[in-house]
Amino acid sequence: MNRKISRREAALGAGAAGLALGLGLPALGQAETRVHYVPSSGEALAPVGLGTSRVFNSVSGAAQRSALVEVLEALFGGGALVDTSPMYGDAETHLGELLPQAAGHESMFCATKVWTEGRAAGARQMQESMDKIGVERIDLMQVHNLLDWETHLETMLEMQAAGSIRYLGITTSRAGQFAEFERVMRAADWDFVQLNYSLGEREAEERLLPLAAERGMAVMVNRPFVRGGLFRAARGKELPRVAAELGCDSPAQLFLKWILGHPAATCVIPATTKVKHMADNLGAAAGPLPNARQRKEIAAWI
Questions:
Q1: Beta partners for 113?
Q2: pLDDT at 12
Q3: Is 184 within 8 Å of 142 (Cβ atoms)?
Q4: Strand positions, DSSP E, the chain
Q5: S-S: 194 plus which of 14, 90, 100, 171, CB 3.0-4.6 Å?
Q6: Would you give the DSSP letter of residue 39?
Q7: pLDDT along the chain (302 residues), means of 10
Q8: Are 110 and 80 in contact (CB under 8 A)?
Q9: What is the largest CA-CA distance in the chain?
Q10: pLDDT value of position 31
Q11: How far is CA 268 from the centre of its chain?
Q12: How far apart are CA 173 and CA 88, in angstroms?
């Protein structure tokens, strides 16, 4: 399918401020903060972001709201990307309510999704997402789990041409959808693909990650801890020798660096409600990433 405007034109339409994203990120105290780049534009992007599934969907009470504001502020101190979806209950609404309270929120790279069927319903939902989050432009709009993707792609291209969307993507979070996901990756020039990949779910490295590299698509990784499964597997174990080589002082940093060490991985979006965990996750953006030998050692440890 021919695109109405080039991906580079769309991505760079926001001006030089977008390209500066990540280039001036503060150090995290361990080493120089790493940035990755969106292949379709060359825009810099911090490799550790924040997912909102099961985190922002149900928010009640001042204490919980304050904790999530602190999480956002920690993110914006060393990252920028927040990923959400209409599928996550009231996550978009709560994100929009809390963002103005978070210092540094102006730097947010906003990623959300369309998750419905039909052209009119899709267009309406995408506009509602912008209204709920409180932004005039979505940095990345993704078709959630490929639902009615061909219909939504046409609308997304029109919105991209109008300047209300910068990048286009598709998502999945289960290996059972990978065959169809591969077909859709080949069917259009997506800027981003979002998929599950971790030490506990390695299927994406067989075909999808190489294909993303071949087609110049950024890869956003979800489920990096397999919903806590990796932490349970590591419980009681001392960190391996390779952790010191990589400047890691927690299992979370090892798990995230293992993902980011894959040449196709652009960013990862762990979800958390605790500021200490957000700060720990951001530590994976500092210092070296593992080479092939080190990734094998991490995999053998877990």
A1: 142
A2: 33
A3: no
A4: 36-37, 44-45, 50-51, 81-83, 109-114, 138-143, 165-171, 192-196, 218-222, 267-268
A5: 171
A6: T
A7: 35 32 40 88 98 94 97 97 97 98 98 98 98 98 98 98 98 98 98 98 98 98 97 96 97 98 98 97 96 98 92
A8: no
A9: 55
A10: 54
A11: 5
A12: 14
**Does residue 112 sit in helix, strand or coil?**
strand
Q: Where are the domains of the chain?
A: 42-226+268-287
Other C-beta atoms within 10 Å of 26: how many? 8
The two structure tokens encoding residue 29 = 């105290």
Ramachandran angles phi, psi of 184, nearest 5°: -70, -35
Quick check: 250 and 280 in contact, CB under 8 A? Answer: yes
Residue 1 burial (CB count, 10 A): 10
The pTM of this model reads: 0.90
CA distance 268 to 221: 5
**Contact criterion met (CB below 8 Å) for 267 and 221:** yes
Amino acid at 100: P
What does the alpha-carbon distance between residue 143 and residue 168 come to, in Å, rounded to a whole number? 8
Between CA 139 and CA 12 the distance in angstroms is: 11
For 192, phi then psi, to 5°, come to: -130, 145
Q: What is the amino acid identity at position 207? A: R
**Per-residue DSSP letters for 241-270?**
HHHHHHT--SHHHHHHHHHHTSTT--EE--
CB 231 within 8 A of CB 200: no
Q: To which CATH superfamily is domain 42-226+268-287 assigned?
A: NADP-dependent oxidoreductase domain (3.20.20.100)
Q: What distance in Å separates the CA atoms of residue 181 and residue 45, rounded to the nearest whole number? A: 24
Find out whether 270 and 51 touch, Cβ atoms under 8 Å: yes
Q: Look up tokens 């989050």; give the residue.
A: 133
- For residue 268, give the nearest of 282, 279, 280 by alpha carbon: 282
